[in-house]
Design goal:
mainly beta, 50% strand, Neuraminidase, 4-stranded antiparallel sheet, 6-stranded antiparallel sheet
Length: 288
């Protein structure tokens, strides 16, 4: 199945817009003063040599190694994979069921059953599983199996959790998609962080992503205040969507409007296109 990946992984030139005078990292093909796109034959950095990438396609969930392009379909009739902190298991959606898959032996078991499941997430701090459905948001305590509702204002479309912090993408009347923060420690106390989508927390739970400008910019916000800490631009002529922060603070995954997976480095916004099938979505990267 390696033909589904680019034979040569590409580094797309992109722009980092945190401050006008911030110097960019000297990665080949990444210059903020050039107005046009340029792709050069560069493999992903050595830091991703052992990284593992999950993503969905119409025929199931795939597991890939960005470093060498090796890819295998690990389960069928499945969507929306999200790694557990151990980098061994992941949660996913199969029709009206939330499932757990173990990559060491390919075993699977059902965690919950609900209609119209929109999204799943795993708490980076304690491995609790969160489910967003058309009727509400729920938390599954993995240890006990207990399921409980979470007081979220509107049905969520995306979720991300770390410790007591839950981030959601919701649709509000007359405002469209917004990102909100909820405190799980104070029974759902919330704050509106901004208009946009692609809710995803940094590994330590202090920052969240917010997709802006027609999916051409990604803001990194302080989850306490909503202040913009940095802005990452998408590659020229390649809007990015469904961004999801990996377990490593340096790496965010994204999907182009053409349906291909990109990895974006936080420090300088450099991008690597990983797939070229045009039908991939919902990536999640685990870096050991």
């Amino acid at each position: 199945m390696n033909n589904m990946l680019l034979k040569t992984l590409k580094t797309a030139r992109c722009r980092f817009a945190i401050l006008p005078l911030v110097a960019l990292g000297m990665i080949s093909g990444c210059r903020r003063d050039s107005p046009s796109a340029l792709e050069t034959d560069q493999p992903p950095p050595a830091s991703l040599r052992q990284a593992r990438l999950l993503f969905q396609r119409p025929d199931g969930i795939y597991l890939a190694k960005p470093s060498d392009g090796h890819t295998v379909r690990v389960t069928t009739n499945a969507a929306y994979p999200r790694w557990f902190p151990d980098g061994r298991r992941f949660v996913f959606i199969r029709q009206d069921r939330v499932m757990l898959h173990d990559t060491t032996d390919a075993s699977e078991r059902e965690l919950a059953h609900s209609s119209q499941i929109r999204a799943v997430a795993v708490n980076r701090a304690n491995s609790d599983v969160f489910i967003a459905t058309a009727s509400g948001t729920y938390r599954i305590a993995l240890g006990s199996g207990k399921t409980e509702p979470i007081p979220v204002g509107s049905p969520a479309y995306e979720l991300s959790a770390c410790g007591p912090v839950l981030i959601t993408t919701e649709r509000l009347p007359l405002r469209g998609f917004v990102i909100k923060r909820y405190s799980l420690a104070t029974d759902g106390e919330s704050i509106l962080l901004g208009r946009g989508c692609s809710a995803s927390l940094s590994p330590n739970g202090t920052r969240t992503t917010l997709n802006l400008s027609g999916h051409r910019e990604l803001a990194l916000l302080d989850v306490r205040t909503g202040d913009t800490l940095a802005t990452l631009s998408a590659p020229p002529d390649t809007p990015l969507d469904n961004q999801y922060w990996s377990n490593h603070p340096e790496w965010i995954t994204a999907v182009s409007h053409n349906g291909d997976i990109f990895l974006q480095r936080v420090r300088d916004a450099a991008c690597w296109q990983i797939t070229s099938t045009g039908d991939a979505d919902r990536p999640d990267l685990f870096v050991p």
